[in-house]
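Subject: design request, 540 residues
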């Protein structure tokens, strides 16, 4: 009955979304609404509001994507755990606090396990998301490039939130309906990163690019931290068990969507409440990229570009490592290390907390290094990418050989995977370096092909770990480490941080006049300001 009410509410929300949007538009016309925006425009630059909302959007997206990875440890029965332990000579001892024993409330944590899915089936369910995810990357990038990233991003996360709320009900309908639901979740969320790259190209000044991109994409780590840590607490202590995880996170995604529609806009020129000073600053340091919407995408140049392919290959390796940990670290902590569900969630989230701190710090450091011209942008991106690839590779291998020393295993995972935070000031921002005009399209290619790793890793891990032994998992970590190191060499050989010559091809014939007029306006904007430094001082 509870599920029926939730389904009904979701359907009503979909049907009435047009009325909700109209209501917010009417509110915008009211004086109090305008006063609110003028006040906050004085104190908080609009580019930072967009960055914070982008961060929260990415966090919501990863929370809804990753929460199944830890919930599935309680959804599925593991009746053969004892026999597997007997056949594993390196098996860790099962402590009194592990999940096959009673929890603190006196009830068995296994009483909520309702599904009899083997490891291979779980791998198919977890990987189904990425089959849908990869499809909408290029369409999402093209839509964001043509119409702007606001609604491309917002509607994608909105649809993911609805599917998240429906997950418990669909899971009870069978494996195939759940696989289909996860596919459509990925289909909706595939627009996220292309849309964000397009928005950052419009809003992030060159010397703030690393910092703003690191802030926005740090939502990956915070989302994973929340999905892991809070999910375990909800499942262990909130009555109702694992379904509450999906209801809570789906509702949070819907709330984010409503706030996003009110606060954020595609570019500075379309923002009704941005200060004139900030608008001039952004037009001066970035240029009016909205003028170039008439440009024809140089597909041949992009697809034959060495720096683009170096970035794509490095992204595939990074995503192999990231998706291995996001989707399956909770299973490792549960099946091999025998942590209970609350401990599992907290310890599985620790690497991403460290990663978040490093990603923000590296973004600030990268902008500082570039501002003071200590090294070229290409050299900087390659150094950060190497630390972000080799560090996690070494960390997970050492963790797999740390045996059953729980403290040491947790520390090695946290430090090793935390170093992956350097990726966000290197590879993740590199599409903006190569081509501000086509960053959404490049991000679609890079992140879309990188998602092939997400399609492969959950299923492969399910096949490689049928008995859930430490020896089987060690093979998984060796494969992950080799992927990280080998693909990093491709970026060292072919990667670049310089703007590519094909970033500004000739515009389409029907947009020649508009392009020329806007170019003249852009030159006028530059003449109205004496220097970049004086504008920066005025906008602090």
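Subject: RE: design request

Done. Sequence follows.
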């Amino acid at each position: 009955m509870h599920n029926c009410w939730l389904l009904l509410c979701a359907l009503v929300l979909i049907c009435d979304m047009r009325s909700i949007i109209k209501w917010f538009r009417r509110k915008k016309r009211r004086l109090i609404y305008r006063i609110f925006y003028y006040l906050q425009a004085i104190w908080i630059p609009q580019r930072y509001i967009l960055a914070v909302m982008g961060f929260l959007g990415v966090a919501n997206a990863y929370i809804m994507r990753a929460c199944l990875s830890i919930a599935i440890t309680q959804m599925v029965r593991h009746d053969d755990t004892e026999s597997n332990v007997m056949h594993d000579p390196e098996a860790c001892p099962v402590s009194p606090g592990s999940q096959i024993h009673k929890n603190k409330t006196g009830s068995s944590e296994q009483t909520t396990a309702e599904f009899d899915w083997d490891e291979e089936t779980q791998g198919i369910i977890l990987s189904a998301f990425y089959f849908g995810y990869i499809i909408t990357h290029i369409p999402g990038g093209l839509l964001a490039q043509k119409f702007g990233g606001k609604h491309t991003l917002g509607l994608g996360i909105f649809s993911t939130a609805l599917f998240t709320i429906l997950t418990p009900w669909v899971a009870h309908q069978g494996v195939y309906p759940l696989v289909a639901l996860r596919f459509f979740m990925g289909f909706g969320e595939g627009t996220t990163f292309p849309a964000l790259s397009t928005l950052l190209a419009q809003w992030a000044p060159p010397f703030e690019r690393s910092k703003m991109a690191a802030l926005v994409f740090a939502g990956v780590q915070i989302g994973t931290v929340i999905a892991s840590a809070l999910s375990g607490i909800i499942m262990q202590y909130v009555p109702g068990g694992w379904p509450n995880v999906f209801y809570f996170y789906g509702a949070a995604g819907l709330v984010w969507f409503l706030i996003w529609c009110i606060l954020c806009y595609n570019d500075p020129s379309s923002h009704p409440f941005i200060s004139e000073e900030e608008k001039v600053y952004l037009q001066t340091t970035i240029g009016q990229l909205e003028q170039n919407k008439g440009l024809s995408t140089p597909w041949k140049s992009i697809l034959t570009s060495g720096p683009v392919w170096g970035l794509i290959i490095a992204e595939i390796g990074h995503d192999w490592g990231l998706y291995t940990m996001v989707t399956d670290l909770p299973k490792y902590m549960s099946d091999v290390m025998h942590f209970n569900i609350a401990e599992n969630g907290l310890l599985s989230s620790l690497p991403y907390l460290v990663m978040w701190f490093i990603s923000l710090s590296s973004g600030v450091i990268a902008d500082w290094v570039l501002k003071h011209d200590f090294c070229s942008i290409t050299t900087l991106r390659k150094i950060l990418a190497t630390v972000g690839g080799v560090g996690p590779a070494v960390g997970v291998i050492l963790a797999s050989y740390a045996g059953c020393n729980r403290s040491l295993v947790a520390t090695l995972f946290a430090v090793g995977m935390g170093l992956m935070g350097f990726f966000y000031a290197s590879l993740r921002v590199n599409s903006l370096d190569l081509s501000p005009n086509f960053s959404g399209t490049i991000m679609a290619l890079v992140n879309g092909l990188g998602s092939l790793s997400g399609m492969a890793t959950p299923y492969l891990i399910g096949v490689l770990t049928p008995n859930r032994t430490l020896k089987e998992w060690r093979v998984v970590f060796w494969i992950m480490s080799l992927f990280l190191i080998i693909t990093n060499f491709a970026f060292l050989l072919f990667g670049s941080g310089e703007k590519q010559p094909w970033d500004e091809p000739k515009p389409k014939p029907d947009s020649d006049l508009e392009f020329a007029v806007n170019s003249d306006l852009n030159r006028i904007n530059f003449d109205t300001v004496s220097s970049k430094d004086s504008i920066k001082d005025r906008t602090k």
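The chain has 25 helices and no strands.
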